Amino acid sequence: MQNELNAPLDGLLEKYTELLLGEATPELKEKVKLWVLYSHIAKSMPPLVKHWNETYPEEKEMVKELISEIKQLNEQHRMSQTNKKRT
User: What average pLDDT does the chain have?
Assistant: First the structure.
């Protein structure tokens, strides 16, 4: 069953990454996958993420940087889309 899901879910991740950031390189897809996983767990089980953050403070900082990078790339993509619509 897992193998049957890999290709369709990879396609979903690729399209999501493209819509979110404007492109879907393998590196960006991996970053978005990590961001989605962390964000989902943080929303559904905050105590677990709190414990993880306390246990892995360096990795927590890496996740914060990743979130910031994705936010910045998304804002750049949205701005470029807005500028295209104006011209």
Answer: 95
Q: Which residue has the tokens 């414990």?
A: 51
Q: What is the 3-state secondary structure (H, E, C) of 12-38?
A: HHHHHHHHHHCCCCHHHHHHHHHHHHH
Using one digit for the tens of pLDDT, what is the confidence trace for 10-39? Answer: 999 999 999 999 999 999 999 999 999 999
Q: Give the other-Cβ count within 10 Å of 74's Cβ.
A: 15
**CA nearest neighbour of 37 among 58, 9, 57:** 9
Q: Are 36 and 20 in contact (CB under 8 A)?
A: no
The alpha carbon of residue 2 and the mean position of all alpha carbons in its chain are separated, in whole angstroms, by: 22
